[in-house]
Design a protein that fits this description.
The chain is 58% helix and 9% strand. The protein has 487 residues and is an alpha/beta fold. It has two domains: 2-58 and 363-475, no CATH class; 68-317, Spore Coat Polysaccharide Biosynthesis Protein SpsA, Chain A, CATH 3.90.550.10. This is Glycosyltransferase 2-like domain-containing protein.
Length: 487
């Protein structure tokens, strides 16, 4: 059944993209109405993104002003909560991981209750051991505990974050069991090697978890924004990472469809109850959510953490290398489409969960993955295709009006860039170093040029890599995990 869905979903994507081509010879008016409806829907989604991003920014600004540690100390069982940060890293530079650990050591939270697990791969050899030993010497006294696991890839496992983290999480479970601690009092954070958490993250998370009656079933996620090395990035990649960052901020306030991305937290109890991360997949964040959802139903949700988590943007050795790495990263993210066949199969294997609950949860996932590769083609090329394929249609009123209506809607959507630019600057300026504030004029120029470069960004750094992932799934060609270059 799963293979059937692996063919069906990307086949639907290709059918949607090519709809103006194969429908216009027979029903050009129907194709035209479809394109107009799609443009209107895109406008609605753009407006929604801007509104939700604004709401998220306001909430983030408010959260930064709260003393979360003081609030947490007033809650019963505060002293029992322990935080484990699992940091998977494969061939990551010592300096990068050191920076992440220094950031965690500065958490406004009792460091004796923060534990680090470096999830390493045995295949990296002595280099991984040496990196851990250097980090251990520098940080062993700055946390409650500092450990390393060395994962060995087994038959049936996929290379990547999921299999590595699952191995590390089992180590945490053994550690907790040996000390007879309650897994409900252990919060596990899946933390990327370049992720810099807000100093109040642990305090915020502890407060909200302890006050959350269903916290055991919940994931907790902060918006991951790519600001760490912003000014070191190529101009076009800077624009793309900015759009990606604002989009993630907007998703934070969309509570009904929010699913964690990249760096997130959950109770050890929840991890153990779903038997940790599945080890035969690549994108693990949405997948672990689906594992929990199909066991516990709508009790499972992702709770927003209104504090920023910053990561590195893609930076290669040169311009071409940067573009290739960014393309590969987007392709890997889009491989999350492989979660849909898994979810559709589970939909028929979980009668204990009401059908509508499953339908509405899956609809948001399917919608996002289908719009990802198709939007560029339908928005930029769709309105011109009916008249090219069917010359007679060009002489009709609809044929004359279609390009103008579609162009007008897209032009209105571009106006939202003003709001995005403002939110981006407000979110980014607190991460800027002293000398970087002088670069504000470059930000202005960047956004002025955005309409010119947005088609390039949308095509080559979003839709095409996503379409490749869909096509690979359709043809049954698995994606191989590649570590993204971030020099």
């Amino acid at each position: 059944m799963r293979r059937f869905f692996e063919i069906l979903i990307p086949l639907f994507t290709w059918s949607l993209i090519t709809l103006p081509v194969w429908l216009s010879p027979f029903h050009p008016a129907v194709a035209a109405y479809f394109i107009i409806v799609f443009n209107v829907y895109f406008f609605y989604k753009s407006l929604k993104t801007v509104i939700l991003a604004t709401v998220s920014y306001i909430n983030i600004d408010k959260s930064r002003q709260v003393n979360w540690l003081a609030k947490a100390r007033k809650i019963e069982n505060f002293d029992r909560i322990k935080h484990f940060f699992i940091i998977p890293n494969y061939k990551e530079g010592y300096a990068k991981v050191k920076k992440t650990l220094e950031n965690l050591a500065e958490q406004k939270y009792p460091v004796k209750n923060i534990y680090i697990v470096l999830a390493l791969e045995r295949s990296e050899g002595q280099e991984a051991v040496t990196r851990f030993q250097r980090l251990f010497r520098n940080f062993r006294h700055r946390f409650g505990g500092f450990y390393a696991t060395y994962h060995v890839l087994k038959p049936g496992e996929e290379k990547g974050k999921a299999s590595n983290e699952a191995y590390a999480a089992r180590f945490v479970s053994q550690w907790v069991k040996k000390r007879k601690l309650d897994p409900l009092n252990i919060l596990v954070t899946s933390c990327d090697a370049d992720a810099l958490m807000d100093p109040q993250y642990c305090s915020y998370l502890t407060t909200n978890y302890l006050l959350d009656q269903n916290g055991r079933y919940h994931f907790y996620a902060a918006p991951v924004v790519l600001y760490n090395n912003y000014w070191d990035l190529n101009f076009i990649i800077r624009l793309q990472t900015t759009i990606s960052s604002i989009l993630r901020m907007s998703m934070l306030s969309d509570r009904h469809s929010l699913i964690q991305i990249s760096t997130y937290s959950m109770s050890l109890w929840l991890l153990e109850s779903v038997d940790y991360w599945d080890v035969d997949i690549i994108p693990e964040d949405w997948h672990i959510f689906l594992q929990a959802f199909f066991k516990y139903g709508i009790k499972v949700r992702t709770v927003p953490v209104y504090l920023l988590c910053t990561r590195d943007g893609v930076r290669g050795k040169n311009l071409w290398d940067s573009f290739k790495s960014r393309y590969e990263q987007e392709k890997r993210w889009a491989w999350g489409v492989s979660d849909i066949p898994y979810a559709l199969e589970k939909m028929f294997q979980s009668p204990q969960i009401p059908f509508l609950d499953k339908f509405f949860r899956l609809f948001g996932i399917i919608e996002g993955h289908i719009l990802w590769p198709s939007s560029f083609f339908l928005l930029t090329l769709g309105a011109s295709i009916p008249a090219l394929v069917n010359p007679y249609f060009k002489r009709t009123v609809m044929g004359y009006v279609l390009p103008k209506v579609a162009g007008g809607i897209l032009t209105l959507s571009v106006l939202f860039v003003l709001v995005i630019a403002y939110l981006d600057f407000q979110a980014k300026h607190r991460f800027m170093k002293k000398g970087e504030i002088k670069k504000f004029p470059y930000l202005v120029i960047q956004w002025v040029l955005f309409p010119l470069f947005s088609p390039i960004i949308s095509a080559f750094l979003s839709s095409l890599p996503a379409l490749e992932s869909h096509t690979r799934l359709l043809l049954g060609k698995k994606l191989n995990y590649k570590v993204t270059q971030k020099i």
